[in-house]
Amino acid sequence: MNEQPFSTVIRGGTAVLPHGPVRADIGIRGETIAAIGDHLGPGVTEIDASGRLVLPGGIDPHAHIEQVSGGGLLNADSFESGTTSAAFGGTTTVISFAAQHVGHALDRVLADYHQLAEKGAVIDYAFHMILADPNEATLKTHIPKLVKEGHASIKVFMTYDRIKLDDEQMLNVLQAARDNGAFVCVHAENHGMITFMVKRLLAHGMTGPSVFPMSHPRLAEVDAIQRLVTMSRFIDQPIMVFHVSTAEGAEVIRRARADGVKIFGETCTQYLLMTDDAVDKPGLEGAKWMCSPPLRKGADQEALWQALAQDDLQVVSSDHAPYRFDASGKLSAGPNPTFKEIANGLPGLEARLPLLFDAMVTRGRLGLERFVALTSTAPAKIYGLYPKKGVLAVGSDADIAIWDGKKTVTLSASLMHDRAGYTPYEGMSVTGWPVTVLSRGRIVVRDGELKVAPGSGRFLPRQAGEAAQPLGRPAAEITGSLPSSAPRHASVA
Ligand code: DUC
Ligand code: ZN
Ligand code: ZN
After folding, report:
1. Tell me: the pLDDT tens digits for 109-144?
2. What is the pLDDT of residues 140-172, one digit of tens each?
3. 0.85 exceeded by the pTM?
4. Which of 198, 315, 319 to mutate to test the pocket of ligand 1 (most atoms within 8 A of CB)?
5. What is the dihedral of CA 330, 333, 335, 341, to 10 degrees?
6. Is 307 helix (H, G, I), strand (E, B) or coil?
7. 3-state DSSP call for residue 305?
8. Which of 118, 116, 292, 115 is nearest to 198 (CA)?
9. Ramachandran angles phi, psi of 46, nearest 5°
10. d(CA 123, CA 87)
11. What share of the chain is helix, strand, coil (3-state, %, to 5)?
12. Is the CB of 187 under 6 A from ligand 1?
């Protein structure tokens, strides 16, 4: 038995453990949870959590930070501001993006994003590698090396002129992911349908943010997810569909999963809590609510909640993509842009957990344990971070958010720590707030103050988890085209 005092004890709270909530103390030594139980011995630092909930820190597996978008625009957050805002919202791990653009060497891209994050991050982080140029060097040289170095997931786009992949490129990426043991996340919208609608709307003089949802038709999402399911099945490569926004999109995923396809789905806070009428505001104001896919209808919200309840969708991210409402962001094309010229994206890294806590725990939709599962444990498992992250267990990193379930806060831009300069959730009132947040045993946020230095967050090298394991049955044409003695890594190009 270790008689040394703990470095920190979180005492007397209700901890949400893998088997459910219990009254327990959490003892931390250094960076990890060393003990969970009643009446633990003293800690050098004691945190009184009586009357509070003690939860694993949130994991936001989809946040754009200090990233150049598909439209070529740098977003508003640095790693310092983005991860600070995450921490104030109870999130202790973020997976952001290292975004390749055409002509860029992927290994250089990763090195650049690492440098930015090392300098600024206050919590731990990993990267999804955005592939916009899946050439020979990317797929055959850089992906094998980078996956081995712990970058276990790839994101690709089916839309956006500068970064979209065609079907053959997509298949090459899926095959490379399979060969190297990586997971693939996809922005799934039919590019042709979007372009068709954009041209049609602009030709009819419909140029404001209020028509933006029409420019991303619901069927664009449905079609793209259906094709993805087919491609995933063909190659036998598991896929995560990012930011599912429609009832029909969630239904395609439900059916595919029932048919045995290894496909996962994510939705985001904004699709659960806001609707498309948010863009319908005077002038350009609605641009603040323009995200892609767009906000949808009340019936979609219901369907997405239902899909989460049934595990058709497994995670809720923020898809934090902050652009200021000025010439550096939403108005970068000038003071009077068409919807086509306005950057897509909303800030939401900080508000995600309080909003979802309020909806799920305070108002009772799905409950506390599902809240923890959807916002922390499931992303940790799916993205290869578990059990280091996503759970309160002995040996896990001491990434912990202590929640005051009774504290009511009205969200406003002045409360937020990101650099978007506005919040789409302005004026919404939530009950439940993360009052103290620890990352690897360090108190990161307490009493409304940041307690750690920029650059103290750490890169999390990951091996892909079980979610990324192929089922072992690519299409017959693929297996038939491999020599029988070929190793798993053999190219079929
Ligand atoms: N897709 C995202 O995933 N985030 C922001 C914008 C977009 O199109
Ligand atoms: Zn996307
Ligand atoms: Zn995104």
Report:
1. 999 999 999 999 999 999 999 999 999 999 999 999
2. 999 999 999 999 999 999 999 999 999 999 999
3. yes
4. 319
5. -60
6. helix
7. helix
8. 292
9. -115, 130
10. 7
11. 35, 25, 40
12. yes
